[in-house]
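User: Hi! I have a protein structure encoded as tokens and I'd like to know what sequence might fold into it. I'm fairly new to this, so please keep things simple.
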């Protein structure tokens, strides 16, 4: 829900975020659980001041989590307004309004807890405009904007992958009857050692390009389990330390028959 203009905090008077100093104060308030700011960087000055390349359309992340429930308490997003200033000469790129709208939705995916997702990445070499059958299964959470907007291609804004993973995080009452779950553990060739970080994709047998949902093996296991030898690295509090979750994946899928790759 829209809560109004960005609130004033110490060092920032409130309203528009125009400088790197404004950005630091406002994101600090997000990290402290005070507010969830959506920052429109009208001329790209903040993106540039952060040392990011000019082809960054936006970025976003949760800020503060409830350590008990794991729920997101605050989050932020930054959108690069240079992509909508009417100029399309390097390094000031331009997007169509519908492409920029979908970039906003992509960043709100990160805002809501989704990471990037990679399905049908062969589309990067398929030419522009992208083939619609491949674009249908390309997640809106794909790391790069490489195609015409999904809406201009007559597709829903969210792919089946986006819908399934968002529904898993924020399930409607009928989630367990609308989706099934494919799960398992990825192992190395020794048949015993679990593989972290493999991209696991469930593809519909009848529509393999259009209906595909993915997960990363070990997605619930912490990125830093720590070690007890020297006693100075307890590991990260983010993610489980349960070793049985190393290499484990879980993919919510709509009804159908699937292959797993």
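Assistant: Happy to help. Inverse folding works backwards from shape to sequence: for each of the 261 positions I chose a residue that suits the local structure. Here it is:
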């Amino acid at each position: 829900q829209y809560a109004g203009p960005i609130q004033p905090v110490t060092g920032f008077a409130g309203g528009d975020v125009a400088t790197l100093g404004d950005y630091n104060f406002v994101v600090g308030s997000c990290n402290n659980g005070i507010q969830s700011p959506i920052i429109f960087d009208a001329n790209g000055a903040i993106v540039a001041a952060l040392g990011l390349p000019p082809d960054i359309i936006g970025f976003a992340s949760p800020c503060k989590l409830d350590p008990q429930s794991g729920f997101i308490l605050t989050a932020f997003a930054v959108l690069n307004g240079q992509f909508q200033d009417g100029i399309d000469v390097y390094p000031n790129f331009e997007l169509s309004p519908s492409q920029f709208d979908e970039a906003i939705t992509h960043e709100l995916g990160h805002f809501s807890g989704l990471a990037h997702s990679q399905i049908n990445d062969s589309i990067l070499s398929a030419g522009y405009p992208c083939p619609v059958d491949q674009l249908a299964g390309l997640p809106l959470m794909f790391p790069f904007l490489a195609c015409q907007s999904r809406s201009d291609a007559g597709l829903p804004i969210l792919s089946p992958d986006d819908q399934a993973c968002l529904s898993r995080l924020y399930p409607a009452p009928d989630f367990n009857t609308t989706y099934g779950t494919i799960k398992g553990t990825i192992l190395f060739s020794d048949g015993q050692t679990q593989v972290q970080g493999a991209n696991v994709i469930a593809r519909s047998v009848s529509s393999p390009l259009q209906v595909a949902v993915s997960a990363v093996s070990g997605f619930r296991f912490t990125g830093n389990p720590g070690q007890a030898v020297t006693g100075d690295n307890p590991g990260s509090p983010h993610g489980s330390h349960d070793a049985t979750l190393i290499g484990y994946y879980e993919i919510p899928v709509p009804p159908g028959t699937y292959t797993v790759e």
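A useful reference point when you look it over: The two ends are 38 Å apart (CA to CA). Feel free to ask if any position seems puzzling.
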